[in-house]
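Cross-check.
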Amino acid sequence: MIQFEQFVLQNGLRVVVHEDHSTPMAVVNVMYDVGARDEDPAKTGFAHLFEHLMFGGSVHIPSYDEPLQRAGGENNAYTTNDLTNYYCQLPAENIETAFWLESDRMLSLAFGEKSLETQRKVVSEEFKEHYLNKPYGDAWHKLRKLAYTQHPYSWMTIGAELSHIENATLEDVKHFFFKHYCPINAILTVAGHVTTDQVKELAEKWFGDIPSGKKYIRNLPQEPRQTAPRRMEVHAGVPVDALYTCWHICSRTDSRYHATDLLTEVLSGGASSRLFQSLVKEKQLFSNISCYHFGSIDPGLVTIEGKLVKGVKIEDAEAAVETEIQKIKDTVIEEKELQKVKNKTESLITFEDMSLMNRAGSLSFYTLLGNANLINDELARYQQVSAAEIQQEAHTIFNPDNSTTLYYLSNQQ
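Predicted model, tokenized:
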């Protein structure tokens, strides 16, 4: 059981405290309830751009990294379609340095043409390197656009188009910042060798005077139910053919989520999983294959993706995948197989919870979902999933009319 305390500052900042006195370290995690789904469709990639801009210094602190490193700390950040997260770890005795740094960039991020131009170039190069010039790099750009007709999950975190970042103005950036990066839209989680009273005092001192901002009310277009299969074929200079098929699934907070997650483990959770055993090891159609989902807060996608062995026809590979899917729809999985994937999930959760950084991140995320105590309930929810529920999810998800398929074909053959 992971113990924690919660309180809210008058400006709306939600604060979570997890005391762990077995370590001399502390983690300060700031999660903002903003991701790529909250962007203007004509100005995408801004949430990710801010991940870079937030390290460019604030009004009173020209360099974010330098003071933190002097205090013995390290930091990082990530952006998804749902959220943006900044976190650092440092000796608990120097924790006030982290409060000072995080509060100053929330209150007064340094906006300037020079900083914007620098980070715009960095992100543009990242876009080119990973999504335009890398083999298969644009696969998810194409898949998302094909799978989503209404919902803003139709673009990736990096942005829908390179031009959106290249053309981002200082005014655009400021507007996005003041709309989203404020106490009312943030969660501060502090974990480690701290006390709740100490965190309350520091939170009030460093964050209490920051204007709360206006609560962002999300009103996103909902994706209509898909009623017919969608397909696309791409020819490119890639080494081998690749198959991508995705299906719409429930949201992260849906009661069916845990069955969906275990379903992906049955199909693709390691070398003993069904897809690997049948299609890689036995039939040797794929050199590698995986089944995964992104755990997105709004209804997301589950995907089967694989690189083919040279000489294999992609139609034959797709038919073999469909055969494996039909098996899991037709037959309830045995208790032994179900228990194996549950044990693996339990080990993964237990291992993740060993890390102070992960515990802080999980508390922030579950608070964002609406219930921080999910950190203690998740394992039980997985254990309660029955074989019949997994079979039912397979029927619901793997409906041909719910599918989007991309043939990514090599023109080198």
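The longest strand covers residues 25-32. The mean pLDDT is 95. Passed to J.P. for a second look.
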